[in-house]
Amino acid sequence: MSKDILNAKADFPLLKQTINDHPLVYLDNAATTQKPQVVIDALVDYYTHLNANIHRGNHSLAVQATEAYEGARRKVAGYINAEHNHEVIFTRGTTESVNLLAYTFGEKFVHSGDEVIVSQLEHHSNYVPWQQMCLRRGAAFRVLPFDENGELDLALFEHMLNEKTRLIAVNQVSNSLGTVNPVGEIIRLAHAHGIPVLVDAAQSVQHLPHDVQSLDADFYVFSGHKMYGPMGIGVFFGKEKWLEALPPFLSGGEMIDMVTPEKVTFNVLPFKFEAGTPNVAGAIGLGVAVDYLQQFDQHELQKYEEDLLGYGLSLLAEIPDLIIYGDPTHRSGILPFNVNGIQHYDMGVLLDTMGIAVRTGQHCTQPIMDALHISGTVRASLALYNDRADLEKLAYGVKRAIKILKR
Ligand code: PMP
User: Fold this and answer.
1) Topology of domain 41-293, CATH
2) With a threshold of 0.90, does the pTM exceed it?
């Protein structure tokens, strides 16, 4: 039997706190999610009983730590339905994963006059590394704009593809607007031109279907800390054929096979991309987060989160002078808004005095804010442990803040 979502809150010790004398309402999940007790226990247990460096030791602890680390890789590979476990590379997070590809792919496959396409809905993490790589390689950095609903135009995207296009980088869910982008269609269109696609799944892997094979994603990246896992651990998934073709990113220990003054040969996958001592505890913790997530019926979970978002948006829409940004056909996890005449920062500070944690500002998406001609938004973002009462408290808090600030 799958686990009951309505009881999930009890699994997260941090949520039992009061903040500013109010029970915490945590709605900053797009920035980072809280961790269930099982993940916290796994980290303590690792450092209490298992800590050893992996892959190179033959004593019992080294063997057990290696097995636990590789077990975590298998769990993550299973979660995203990778064809091979060695297609899962552990990194520090989405940002490092995108940089891994920007450096290696750029060095090997991007030359002067080539083009790379990103969307205007990207987080800086999936924007700046491509812009910088294009500058290094003399390539054109092209940006697919979003429309008045906060959606990408597929016809325009298809029009932008040409024989110079080397790679597409796009997120599955925008961290600022919550738009669910048609990455399946984008991949299909790009593949028709033989172009690979990187999917930034930082805001989708914990909320939406996460099957890299059915999506046919060439590269798929995400962060552990946004999916109930520890900070400092993330994933770079690449199809085997691409990982074989790409040069290593960081070099040093672990990623080599033979080293002489004249020559080096590289280790097999996935180790070729994991130079140095990795975040073993983080990977193990992420594996436990995956186990935790998989206790829920995945369809039920999606339905629950979708209903919750709809409920939150309807509560906010009733508030006079409140503007909700974007009106995409599919939205996931994000409630972006402002109130006329009130600074987003002031709204955030007042909500915090009521124990409500939201984020304000640009959310690392200046191109989105520039396109909307605003300096930022208030962003409430959801996780599986949120409930209707959290959103009622948010709506009540926003109304109270309006009263105070407009007095
Ligand atoms: N992409 C998206 C869509 C994100 O939401 C974030 C985090 N806000 C990132 C990339 C960067 O993730 P990290 O900071 O964990 O590397």
Assistant:
1) Aspartate Aminotransferase; domain 2 (3.40.640)
2) yes
